[in-house]
Amino acid sequence: MANKTKYSLDTGPIALAIMVAAILFSSAFYFAPAKAQAQLLPSDNSFNQLQHTISVSADSSQEVAPDKVEITFSVVSRGPDSSLLQTENDAKLRQIKEKMIALGVPEANIKTVGYSLDRWSEYNKTQEQYVDLGYQLQNTLRVVSYDTSKAGNIVKDAVQNGANDVSGIQFSLSDAAQKELYGTLLKKAVSEAKAKATSMASSAGVSIVSLGQMSEGYSYVAPMANYAYKGVADSAAGSAPEVSISAGLVKVTASVSASYEVSG
Predict the structure, then answer these.
(1) Which one of 31, 37, 109, 179 is most buried, counting C-beta atoms within 10 A?
(2) Distance between the two ends of the chain, CA-based, in angstroms?
C-alpha cells in the first residue's frame, strides 16, 4: 500500500505542468492565423499599380519559298534467300547513291534511316491459309537537298535505279533561313504591339510609362507535297515517268503578347 500512495503523490506536479503547457500552446495557435493573414494583404499602392496596365497582342506573318527538301524512299525486295536479297539491295542502294551525288546532293545528305528483314507470306485462297514464301527486305534512304528544283529528278533517278516505294516528300526552310526570317518578323510584331498600346492609351487619356512584360510565340507551316510511287520494281528499267513536284510556300509567323504600365 505504501508504494501505491507514493506513486500517486509523484504524478501530481507532472500532470499540472502538462495542463499549463497545453493551455499556452493552444493560445499561441489560436492567435497566430490573424497575424499571418494581416501580412499577406497587399497595400493600396500595389493594388492600384496592378490596375494601371494595358495588355496587347500582335503577330507578323510571311509566306516564302522553301529552300530545303527531304525525300524518303525504299528499296523493297522479296524472295526465298535472305542473303541474295541483301546482295541485290546493296547493289541498288549503291547505284542510287551514285545518281544522287551526280545530281549534286552531298554524300552526307544521303542516309539510311530504316532497315527491316521479315518473313514474307501471302494468303492462298485454294488452301485457305497463309503460305510462307520466304523473306521481305526493306532498306530506306532519306535524301536532303537544298536545291528544291531537283526534287523531281531525285525521285525519278531513285525509281529508275531500284527504289520502289517513295513514302514522302517534305519541303521546309533551312535553319539559317528560318532564323533570319523569324528575327525580321519578330521585330515587326513588337513594333505593332507597341503601336497598339500607344493608340489605346491615347484614346483612354493616359500615357505609357514603361513595358511591364512581353512574351513571344512562333508558328511554322510547311507545304504538303507527298508523292507515292510503288511497284516500280515490277516494271521495265527506265520506265519511270517524268516527275514534276510543286513545292508550295512556307508560312512563318512571329507573335507577341505584352503589357505596358500607364499613368494619367
Answers:
(1) 109
(2) 89
| CA gap 193, 212 in Å, rounded | 13
According to DSSP, the residues that pair with 118 across neighbouring strands are 136
Mean pLDDT of 167-195: 95
Q: Which domain holds residue 34?
A: 2-41
Instruction: Examine residue 251 and state whether it is found in any structural domain, yes or no.
Output: no
State the amino acid at position 37 in one-letter form. Q
Question: Do the domain assignments include residue 87?
Answer: yes
**Burial (Cβ within 10 Å: 0-12, 13-18, ≥19) of residue 188:** middle
pLDDT digits (tens, 9 = 90+) for 61-85: 999 999 999 999 999 999 999 999 9
Same structural domain for residues 185 and 104?
A: no
* Segment (H or E) for 155: helix 151-160
Residues 142 and 12 in one domain: no
Q: Residue 253: helix, strand or coil by DSSP?
A: strand
Please give the model's pTM, rounded to 2 decimal places: 0.69
In a domain, 47, yes or no: no
Share of the chain above pLDDT 70, in %: 73
SS3 32: helix
